[in-house]
Protein 1
Amino acid sequence: MTDFSPRKGMTDLEIDETIEAILAEATLEEKVAMMSGQGFFQAMAEDDRVWCARPYRAGGGLERLNVPALYFTDGPRGVAGGQSTCFPCSMARGATFDTDLEQRIGEVMGIESRVNGCTLSGAVCMNLLRHPAWGRAQETYGEDPHHLGEMGAALATGIQTHNVVATVKHFALNSMENARFKVDVRIDDRALHEVYLPHFKRAIDAGCASVMSAYNKMNGEYCGQDRVLLTDILRGEWGFDGFVHSDWVMGVYHPYGAAAGLDVENPEPIHFGPKLLAGVENGTIEPEVINRACRRILRVTYRFAASEDPVEAYESALSAAPAHTAIALEAAEKSAVLLKNDDVLPLIPGKVGTLAVLGKLATQENTGDEGSSKVRPPYVVTALEGLERASERLGINEIVTADESDLDATREALTKADAIVVVVGNTAEDEGEFIPGDIALGADVPEELRSEAQRSTVGGDRDNLGLRQDQQNLIAVASSAGKPVIVVIVSGSAIMVEEWHESVGAILQTFYSGMEGGTALAKLLFGEVSPSGKLPFVVAKSPADYPFFDKGAERITYDLWHGYTKFDREGIEPRYPFGHGLSYTTFDYRSLKTLADDKAVHAQVTVSNTGEAEAEEVVQFYVGAPGKALERQKKLLKGFARVKLKPGEQRLVSVTIPREDLRYRDPLTRRWQFEPGEYRISCGGSSASLVETTVAL
Ligand code: BGC
C-alpha cells in the first residue's frame, strides 16, 4: 500500500504530485466517498444528539492510502466542541469594528479547534443582516457589506493561522431562518454583486479556503447546486480554488450538484454517495467532475496539513485558557453600544451604596442561540455575578434584585436603591437557529436517518422587534422609582425602544456578551472602561421602516435597499443610526483631507479626545458616488479604524479606499463600472454625524 500521509513542509509541487498519485490509485467509489461527510447521524445518536460533541468527518479521507479526512467543528461564538472559550456573539464583535481583535479571536478558535481534533471550522458566518427579525442575526456581523467583509476576513485569517480550514457560510442570501430550507430569493445581478456577495469575496481574497453553500434557493435553484453561484461566480469570476461543501442535510437535492460545483455533501452521502457513483457509471455525470472535486478537497487538506503549526502542541489546557478568556473579556468591553445616556453613566464608584439589578436575564447564563453555534464554556459570568464580584472594588454595599415575575417585590426592592440596572432582551427561546421537529428531510432520506437528523430548537425568526410586555412593565416600574435607570439590552440585533426609551436615563446594548459578559458590564457601568461599540445596523422607530420580511415566505425579492441605505434613500429618520454609539468622552473630527491616484482614494482626518475620559473611538469613512449613470446609495461605509485616545490627545487617522471598491455593477453588461465624477467623502463617529469633503475621481 502506498502511504500518502501529508508531511510538514511539503512544497506545492509535491502536494500536486501526491494528489495526482492518490487520484491514480483510488477507485471511483473511494473518490466519491471523499465527496461526502460520514458518521454524523451515528455520532448524533451516540452523543445523545449533542451537536459537535465530537469532530464530524466532513469530507476527504481515504484510510486505505492514509489520506486524512477533514474534521468539522462549528462556531461562530467560539468552538462548538469541548469546553471552549465563549466569545460575545458575532454581532457583538461586529459592533467592535475591531479587525485586529477579530483576528485574535480567530486565532483562539483555531487553537481550540485543534485541541478538539478539528481541521475545518464553520465559524465564519457572513450573511448580510437584511432585516433585524432574522433569527440568526447574532451569528453575523451586521448590515453593511464592507464591514462584514473586513470582520469575516479577519476571523478567517486568524483561524487559518493554526492550519484549520475556515469555511465561509452560508453562500449565499441566507438572511432569514424559518423558511431557509425552501425560500426562493429572487435577486438581480446588480443587488447580488453589490450588496449580498462582496463580503464573501473579501473573505475569499483573504485566503478563506472553503465555502459552505446555503440551504435556500436563488432565482429558483437551491444554492447547494447552483452553477451560477458555485461555478460561474465563485470559480469563474473570483478565481476561488478551495472547495465547497453543503450545509447540513437538505443542502443539496441531486447528484448533479457535483457538476454544478459542490464538492462535498454534508453531513452524509444522501444525494451524493451511491447516487453520484451511479450517475458517473451511467454517464450522466462526467468522471472529471469527481476528479476535479477531489483535487480541490485534497489540495486544501494537504496544503493545510503541510504547513507549519505556530504552536508546538495543541494541548487540552489551551481550551478556555486565561489568555483566551481575557480576549473574550476584551471583546465584551469593546462591543457594548451606549445607545443613550442622559448623564446617568458612568456610575461613580463609591457613590452607589445600594444597586438594584433587575430582570430575569440578569441572573441567566445567556450566551445566545442553542443551535449549531452553541458553545459550552467552563463558566459564564452573568450580569449579576459580574456586579457582585466587582462590588467591593466599586464601593457597592448592597445589591438588591427582583424581576418581571413580581412587580410588587420589585417596587419594594427599589425603595433603597441609589441606581437601577434593568437587564432585558432575548434568549435562545426568542431567536436563533430553527429546525422544526417535523421537518421533511427530502423524499430520499432513509427513514432511520430522519429522526437522528432532526434537531429541534426554539428560536427562529422574531415576530416582535421590541421587548416583551413583561420586560416593558419592569422598565416602567423602575422608571417610576425616581432613581437613575440604566437599561441593558441583550439581543442578537436591533431592539426597538419607542415605547420606553424616553423614560430611562441610559441604554446599553451588550448583545450576547459571552462568558465574561458580566465582568465587562461592571467595568462599563462604573467607567473603568468607556463604551466604544458602534451599531452595525440601524435601529428604526417603526418596524415598517425596514424592508419587507415574511418568515414563512416561499419567495422573496432582495434588492439594493435595506438598512441605512434604505433609510437614506427614503429620508427616514432612524431612532439610532448605523455606526452610532456614545462614549464617556467626546471626540472632535476636523481637517478631513483626501488624495486620489488612479488606484485609490487616501482619506485622512484628525480626531481629538475633547472630554475627560480615556476612550476608544471607531472612526468611520463613508463615500457617496456621483450617481449620474444610475442611482447609487447616498453613502456607503468604505473604511474604518479604531483608535484609543487619552483626554486631550489627538491622532491622524487614515484609510485607503481602492477605486475598485467604488464601482457599480452595470445591470446591462453585468460588469463592474467605475463612474468618473465628484465623490463625497464623509467621516465621523457615526453615519449621522459626519464631516465632509469632495474629491474628483
Ligand atoms: C447550520 C450551519 C452549521 C451546520 C453544521 C446547519 O444547520 O445552518 O450554520 O454550520 O448546521 O453545524
Note: Residues 627 and 675 are 8 Å apart (CA to CA).
Protein 2
Amino acid sequence: MQSEHMKIAVLGGDGFCGWPTALSLSDKGHDVHIIDNLSRRWIDAELGVQSLTPVDSIQERQRVWYEITGRRIHFHLIDIAGDYEVIKQWLGKHRPDAVIHFAEQRAAPYSMKSPHHKAYTVNNNVNATHNILNALVEVDLDAHLVHLGTMGVYGYSSIGAAIPEGYLGVDIATLDGRKKTTEILYPANPGSIYHMTKCMDQLLFAYYAKNDGMRITDLHQGIVWGTHTTQTRLHEQLINRFDYDGDYGTVLNRFLIQAAVGYPLTVHGTGGQTRAFIHLQDSVKCIEIALNNPPKKGDRVEVFNQMTETHRVRDLARLIQKMTGCEIINIPNPRKEAAENDLVVKNDKFLNLGLNPITLKEGLLDEVVEIARRYNRRIDRSRIVATSAWTKNIAKTLIHDPESKGLKSVG
Ligand code: NAD
Ligand code: USQ
C-alpha cells in the first residue's frame, strides 16, 4: 500500500476524467498538481463546438475549489508531448509520489478526420507517454505511473472467451517438441488511430518496466458515462465538461443528451456493437484503488480492466427510449468496425479490491438527462451527428443530411 497522503501529478487534469479525479484526490488530502496544455479547450475552438456544460477557466476552477474546501489544487501549463525539458524539470523539482497520465487526444473520430488529425494524435499521444517515461528515468524518480488506457487495445472480437486483464496465457511448442506455458501481452487490435496510440503506449510501458524497473499501472478503461461526481456536485463552477458533438461525445452520454433535447438517437448501423462501460464516479474510484496498490519495482506492468458492464449499442438506445419516449434512427456507420460483436471482459481485480460498481440501473441516467435539459440552449444541433469517416471509401458513400438529422448513403 502507498502512503496515506501523496504528492500527485495529474497530467490532463483539466479534462473530462482528469478534473473529477483531481477534485476527489484533493478532497482526500493529497497534494494535487494538474499539468495540462489546455489543448482540449483549443480543439473545441478548432471544431467550433463547446462542452454542453459551461466550463470555467482552470484558474477559476482552482479558486472556487479553494474557496469552498480550503484546499489548493495547483496548475502548471505544460505541453507534455512538446516540452520535454519543461516536464523533466518539473518532475525533477516537484518529485511527486505518483503521476496519473490522462494527457492524450482521446477521441477516435477526431483521430480519423484527416491526415493532419492522424499525425497530431500519434505525435501527441506517443510523445506525451514517452516524454514522461524518459523524464522519470532521467531525474531518477521512482514515482508510480498510472496511465489511462482503453478497452479498445484488445479489439472487441468475440472468440468465445473472456478478455483477460492485460495478459494472455499461451502454450508455445519448443524446438525439442515440449510445450512451454507463458503469458504474453494480449494481442493488440486497435480500431482507430487513437486506439492504435494506446497500443503503442503499452509497448513503451512494457519496455520501461523491464529496462528501468519503472512501476507502471495501465488501466484499460471502457466508455465513461455520466458527468457528475461527489465533488463536481458541490458547486456549479466545479461542473465537469460534457461532450455531445459527433467527435468527442461518447455513445451513452450522446444518447442521453439526444433524448433530452428531442434529437433522435443516432445508432450507427444495426447497433450490434457491444462495448464496455463505466460510470465516471467509478472511474475516479478505480484510479484511487490503483494508486493505493502500486506494483513493486521490477514487476511487469500492472493491468486492470477498468469497466463494470457491457452493452450492445441498440440495447442502450432501446433502454433510453423506454425511459424517455425518444425516437431512434439507424444511420450508416462512418466507422470501419464489426457490425455485431459479443464482448465478455474480466474485471475481477478491481472487484476484489473493493469496487462496488454503479450500474445503469442505479438511476443515474436520469441525472444526466436532467443536466442535458438544463443546458439545452448551449447545443448546436447541427454538430450532433458524427461525420468523421474511417476510410476514403466510407467517406464517399456518406452525405451529411441535416434534414433527416443524420447521415445518408449516397445513391
Ligand atoms: P479529455 O480530452 O477530456 O482530457 C484530456 C486532457 O489532456 C485535456 O484536458 C487536454 O487538454 C490534456 N492534454 C492532451 N494532450 C496534452 C499534452 N500534450 N500536454 C498536456 N496536456 C494534454 O479526455 P478524457 O475523456 O478525460 O480522457 C482522459 C484519458 O482517459 C484519455 O487518455 C483517454 O484515452 C482515457 N479514456 C477516456 C474514456 C472516456 O470515455 N472519456 C474512456 C476510456 C479511456
Ligand atoms: N456509436 C453509435 N452512435 C453514436 C456514437 C457512437 O452507434 O452516436 C457507436 C460507435 O460506432 C461505436 C460505439 O458506439 O461502435 C462506441 O463509440 P464511442 O464514441 O462511445 O467510443 P469510442 O470511439 O470507442 O471511444 C470512447 C472514448 C475513448 C475510449 C473508448 C473506450 O472516446 O477515449 O478509449 O471509448 S473503448 O470503447 O472501450 O475502447
Note: The chain has a mean pLDDT of 95.
